[in-house]
Amino acid sequence: MSVPVYRSQQWLFDVAAGRHDIDLAVSGMEAHSVEPLLAEMTTKAGYDVDRGAGKLREVVAGLYRVRPENVLITHGAQEALYLVYAALLEPGDEVVTRGPGWQQTLDLPARFGATTKTVDYDLTNGDANGGARTAAAVGQNTRMVVLNSPHNPTGLTFDDSQWKPLSNTNTLVVNDEEYLTDFEDSVVHHVPGSCSVSSLSKVYGFPGLRLGWLVGPSEVVEKCVNYRRYTTISNSPLLEDLGLAVLRRRETYLAEYRQRLTEGWRVFREWAPGHPQLQPLDPQGTPYVCCRVDLPGTSSWQLCTELLDRERLLLMPGDVFGAPGHVRISYARPADLLTDGLERLGRVVTALSGLELAELT
């Protein structure tokens, strides 16, 4: 069975490649250098342990206050999610998830014979009863509920009241927690028997290490380990050494990330009132903001294409998440770069508004 074109990657690596000098699309910190970490690499380039090196698993387990047997180190968060689907789903199963959202979750379960039921976010009230509506969608054939909180692309985050209804569903809840900075707030502490997925890509600025993890019940971890033996076998022990060095400096990277969010959000808030054509949904702990596009006659995809052509500015069209009419703007950037990018965005938005006005008159 073929899989649909992966729209976000198609946009970034096919449509927009070579057409921008400012990137406000990629949804994490700018990439850090590994050079300061190299002195801590001590491992030979042999086969690694299939579930990840012991020291690294212990550090991740400590972040969640779980045991190492509840941790699997993976090639990024995306492999962790893939392994959950591949190892657990059977034909006839159902996956309940949210929309708009990450295409892997929306489309991939069908590859294993499962169906997907999508519960849309209610952006009119900040999705206040999203947890209850998601729990109500769980049926007899539901094998798992796959969530993403803090959410990409809306920036909304579940609180205690949102998690509570899901703790009574008697089904596996899996949460993609890429943008969570304190794992005391992880789903594993809200929903018994649940799974958390995260990585070093977004908050820490090391996507090139391709290092993530799955935290959950040991029986889920073991099924994922067994499936993985048929595919990637293990991680690179060299990259795991670097990942361990990153987590040993975790507080330093988190402090930089939080400073970026604070400063970037200040810059965006000062800019936004002058451009009412973009209506932001205040983010709740994410490095990006989702904006509704109010430019009659111009779709969000067209706006993002115009930005490439006129200003060499890269944004993420909501279309790639199933959210047409919206754009995602990453604001965790150095202030001067962000200011430059927003000025370019403002020029195009103003020009498109003027064109519409001229056509109407």
Pick out its properties.
2 domains; disordered C terminus; globular; four-stranded antiparallel β-sheet; Aspartate Aminotransferase, domain 2; 361 residues; alpha/beta; 16% strand; 37% helix; Aspartate Aminotransferase, domain 1; 11 helices; seven-stranded mixed β-sheet
Widest sheet, order of strands: 2-8-7-6-5-3-4
The CATH superfamily label of the largest domain reads Type I PLP-dependent aspartate aminotransferase-like (Major domain)
Q: Which fold name corresponds to the CATH topology of the largest domain?
A: Aspartate Aminotransferase, domain 2
Overall number of strands: 13
Strand content: 15-25%
Helical percent range? 25-40%
* H/E series: HEHEHEHEHEHEEEHHHEEHEEEH
Low-confidence parts: 356-361
Radius of gyration: 21 Å
CATH class of the largest domain: Alpha Beta
Terminal-residue CA separation: 52 Å
Total domains: 2
Please give a structural write-up:
The protein has 361 residues and is α/β, with parallel strands linked by helices. The protein has 2 domains: 7-27 and 251-345, Alpha-Beta Complex (Aspartate Aminotransferase, domain 1), CATH 3.90.1150; 40-248, Aspartate Aminotransferase, domain 2. The chain is 37% helix and 16% strand. It has helices at residues 7-15, 54-64, 76-88, 103-107, 130-136, 160-163, 218-228, 237-248, 250-271, 300-311, 335-360, and strands at 22-23, 71-74, 94-99, 115-120, 142-148, 172-176, 195-199, 212-215, 278-281, 288-293, 313-314, 316-317, 326-330. The strands form 3 sheets. It has a 7-stranded mixed β-sheet with strand order 2-8-7-6-5-3-4, with helices on both faces. Strands 9-10-13-12 form a 4-stranded antiparallel β-sheet. A two-stranded parallel sheet has the order 1-11. Strand 5 (142-148), helix 6 (160-163) and strand 6 form a beta-alpha-beta unit.
